[in-house]
Amino acid sequence: MFKAHLRYHLILLLGIIFTLDANSQYFPSRQYTTTDGMPSPGVFDITQSANGVMWFMTKSGPMYYNAKDWVTFPDSLGLPSSNNSKIVSSGSSIWVAGLSDTTLSIQYFEDKWHKIPPPLESQDLYYDISFNVFEDDGAKRALLGNRDQLWIYYAENKTWKNLSFDGKKINDIRTTGNQCLITTSDGVFLFRNETIDEFKLPYDQLPDKTILTLAKSNEKIHLLGSDWYAEVIDNNVELLIEGVGLSEAPKGYQSSLVVNDDVVLFGAHTPARIIDQKNKTWNDLPIGGEIVNIGSTRIFKDQESNIWVSDSRGLFKFNILRFVNYNKNSGLVENEVSAIKELSNGLMLVANPRQLNVMDGNSIENIRLGSEGDLGYRVLDIEEDPQLKEVYMATSIGGLLIYKNDQFSKPIQIINFDRFRPTSVELHRGKLYVTGYYGLYEFINQKLQIVDSLTSIRNIISLGDKLALLSNSRGVYLYDGSSFTHYSSKNFDLNSVYDIAIYNGDTLLATRDGIGIARNGVISHALKYTQKYPTYSLLVDRKGRLWGGTDRGIFMFDNDKSTFFGVDEGLAGREVNRNAFLEDSNENIWIGTESGASVFKGGRTSQELNLNVEITEVISGEEKVVTKSKEIALPYDDNEMRVIFQCASYVNEDKINFRYRIGQSDKNWVKLSSAQNDIIFRNLGYGDGTFEIQARYGLEAWGPVTRFDFTVLKPFYLKWWFIILGLIAVFIVGRTIFYFRYLYLIRQKEKLKREVQARTKEISELNENLEEKVIQRTRELEEKNKRLQEYAYINAHYLRGPLTKIMSVLHLQKLERETQINKKYIEILQEAVDELDEVIHSITDRLDADE
């Protein structure tokens, strides 16, 4: 035990202690080069259009970046491309000024480029120019500064006017609100109502009157001088920093000064620099905590408060509103942060595994706790007793280290013994508890006394009137001072608990299997919080939001809304350590990760981001631009629609994703990938429809809805007027047919009536003579019948009788001996008799038929 004490005393005595008095923070950043799609790496100036699109002046001329595509313009337009060229935004237009080859070119862009005749010849143009555009009493004015000359362009009559500054070199032209301020080598001047007046400043409190540029925030005026920085309030200098590194900067380049809340950035063809207002110092703005840009040509703050810095190598963007980060390149001794604690005296302790960083504002004091090669040494937890003004540090094999809360060069006590291995320390209801893998201890009279021999306790947390003991394999124990209540699960990963918190009345646990919930002695998944990544930390802030630290970043739950922050969103690292997650007295959230510490300063909500989706074009199936307005009509024979859109938001454009729905067919939202910026709809049905689209970052809340109405026009034969005309035509035709049919029927009726009348008359006449005709006909028939009977009688008796006799004689003759002559006469007689007999038979047959 004595050897252990001696070992750690020696380590501490030999530890390295030093203080870093520099601006140690760094902001999440991104560099854009040609590998990211930039057509040209050299950027000279930056602006942003009214719809949020970023515009840049480059070696290839002006270009814009809509968060997805880089767009350039052809050389034939004669746009400026020299490194002294300027680009500014004014209303809905973009203005540029500078040299195109050897010719001064001034143009503005509104759907297309428009040229403006320059006020002077190129050979008279001094290298360094200033340019800006603003509205003076509703009239647009363009100001071009060159040496001590100022040219003013009047857009209404397209003329230039020259004003001389009498030897005062014009450094910059800035528009702030409704004012146009001109900084010169002899102070600041105000251009208003076609006149130039000196702008009142306390020059007697400044090193000199050379003002490179300025900025305004609220009631404060920020001035960047020849080699100094000052802040002026109510005509009094409140802050003055001399020697800001501009004395050796190249002359003739434009200067930049950007102010965003408490962050002040400046540059003049130097690395972008940040002002430490508290310590009245400045430091080069680090990129990712490691590198700096060589020489900033412009520093620009966009609508979302991203900071853009340009130089000859490319373009840098800093997100300064969400996270401020710290790592070993910005003041910490190591990258990994294992524990964080805010003390009652305002100091912030940020522990690396073997180091302690004592932060007082931006000043960091570094204290080595373990030896360089001792990988088993690790700071796991930090606690403070404000009454005793003592700080307690659980340091695994280093034991329990006790410090005064204002002196960390040497501990006042070290408690360590075999098999102790402290993992956590917590002040609970006035008592200090320490736990290790082999038991729970209470710190009494500068000694540790065993409370219980529970093993495998990873962390202890004060939870109301109970002390929560979190096991690495057995779940949770709640200690009320006399007994333990145990919560566990059949799921082994849910039994591995790192942190605990009360949120909306639920006891939530950070476990290896995501967020769990403890109820009735059982640990189960908290289904309301669907993420199941290993969760190491939980925090409920003063705004009632639940934070969860995982191995992939952090989640923030605000009622039913979930927001994720990872490395892409500016977090220093991916994995959050269990005792390195807290809210400080200023409501900032501190997050310790494997790659550094991040401070979330409230940040931007989705409502504060520029998540407005702009519909840039709507194209029909025949590749015709329909319109950019809110009402779109498609012909019935071209019912295909391609919608092209953009979301000019730059916090992390790679994480922007979209969802849409169309009123004709989709009731639910359809999600799109971040790489997609157009949608094609085919075979749209006739009638009205509504297209809606939204954007968001990652898993954050969705932004506002952008919508437009459209109509697929019906063919003429389905339009109401054609249908009505058709019905009228059908009615007229039907009426006409009915009329002529009616006339035809009337005529047919008359004709039939006449025929009936004639037939009736004929029948009447026939009826009148019918009886007489019947009697006459009967008489005629009777007479005819009588004649026939008489003829028949004659035929039967008078003709048939003699004939029979003749035939009989002839028969008898045949029986006698025939002579030749008799035979001949008999043959003739026989023929005559046969003919007569045939005639008689024929007459008789016919008479029989008539009867």
Overall description:
Helix content is 16%, strand content 43%. It is an alpha+beta fold. The strands form 16 sheets. The chain has a five-stranded antiparallel β-sheet, with no helix packed on it. It has a five-stranded mixed β-sheet with strand order 59-65-64-61-62, with no helix packed on it. Strands 2-29-28-27 form a four-stranded antiparallel β-sheet, with no helix packed on it. Strand 15 and strand 16 form a beta hairpin. Helix 2 (720-815) packs antiparallel against helix 3 (820-850). The protein starts with a helix and ends with a helix. 37% of the residues are buried.
Largest sheet: 5 strands, antiparallel
Report the mean per-residue pLDDT as an integer.
84
Helix proportion: 10-25%
**How do the strands of the widest beta sheet line up side by side?**
1-34-33-32-31
Radius of gyration: 55 Å
> What coarse outline follows from CA principal-axis ratios?
elongated
Tally the beta strands: 65
Measure the end-to-end span. Answer: 165 Å
Work out the helix count: 3
Strand content: 35-45%
Strand-pairing-aware structural class:
alpha+beta
Low confidence ranges? 1-23
